[in-house]
């Protein structure tokens, strides 16, 4: 059985990524292979349960890179062959890192490049700096643009969103822990799909159906660990409404249309089929999703009067563009022959009508103004990977004011 086991490799890159992956490894029961990579020996010393690797010891002397991306690139390239050997037999590769500094950005770019040479599904979970951090934020956004074409699914959490989700008086520690918890719960949901037998099962093939191509846009959202509610219909609707208000689903770059949607649900043994149906229906209605939904449901007896729900969605932008430009389309020859048939077929002679029976023709109004529009709806779908961030005195003007100033919006 070991020969057919699914091989999942999760790499924590840099301080932020290593912290999250170390926490996940403690609850994963050894089902996945976790690797921690950093140039800071002190940061790695407190993580004893995971396979840790001090990168670029000759260059950095175990003291870190100080945010120097070029130095981090030199350090990680010294271990290129070793990292490639870790990834070559993987079915799923997951990168976890904080972007904007040196190590997380440089390491993520190289690992994503090496993962692209494999047949594995490659996902990335990234934490972004606050928008007021200026150069670091701009560096992180540029890194996201470079990473996107190499990943099947990319999920990022800007620190600005933590201001929206938490209370006004929350501590910095609690705020950052919330972002880490979002990623941890998502990793746990993916592990359940791949390894755990559930009430409704999905598998590696389901993930391949969800993440069909590299590039495109992805989204995710998870419920809060502290949500406790009545399992009646009113409680379910309130719970789903809270989930759908998650700021991760309301970002400017979130896809508005989805090609694939997966919902992972966890509840105790009293979880009813009607509740699963209600959850899936409400979420599908929110996204106006009419295609097949991938639903995975599992039992977790530690949940009392609560559910854990995780949403993954994907818009395959690159795949749509390629399919439209494909010259060897299956139906292209048939359509051309059909067109020729219509052109060569003679139309019947029109009936003649006496001029006295015809009314006075109205001249068509000519509109000199031409409106620009795409003929095909698919052409309206896309993203700009080369657009630059508008910074004024270190402030990102592309971010809404309520995000920049940390104003929490309450829904009544």
Q: Which second-level CATH architecture of the domain at 1-158 and 383-412 applies? A: 3-Layer(aba) Sandwich
Give me the side-by-side strand order of the main sheet. 3-2-1-4-5-6
Instruction: Calculate the terminal CA-CA distance, rounded to whole Å.
Output: 53 Å
Q: SS-based structural class?
A: alpha/beta
Proportion of β residues? 15-25%
What is the CATH H-level superfamily of the domain at 1-158 and 383-412? Tubulin/FtsZ, GTPase domain
What is the typical, i.e. mean, pLDDT? 81
**Alpha carbon gyration radius:** 26 Å
Low-confidence stretches: 319-348, 369-373
Can you count the helices?
Answer: 15
Can you tell me the CATH class of the domain at 1-158 and 383-412?
Answer: Alpha Beta
Give your account of this protein's structure:
The chain has a domain at 1-158 and 383-412: Tubulin/FtsZ, GTPase domain (Rossmann fold). The longest helix has 24 residues, at 172-195. It has helices spanning 14-25, 41-45, 57-60, 69-77, 80-87, 103-115, 135-147, 160-165, 172-195, 204-210, 233-244, 273-287, 317-324, 332-344, 401-404; strands spanning 8-13, 33-38, 51-54, 92-98, 121-128, 153-158, 217-222, 260-267, 294-299, 308-315, 391-392, 395-396. The strands form 3 sheets. A 6-stranded parallel sheet has the order 3-2-1-4-5-6. It is globular. Helix 4 (69-77) crosses helix 6 (103-115), helix 5 (80-87) packs across helix 6 (103-115) and helix 6 runs parallel beside helix 7. It starts with 7 loop residues before the first strand and ends in an 8-residue tail after the last helix. The protein is built from 15 helices and 12 strands. By secondary structure, the protein is α/β, with parallel strands linked by helices. Strand 1, helix 1 (14-25) and strand 2 (33-38) form a beta-alpha-beta unit.
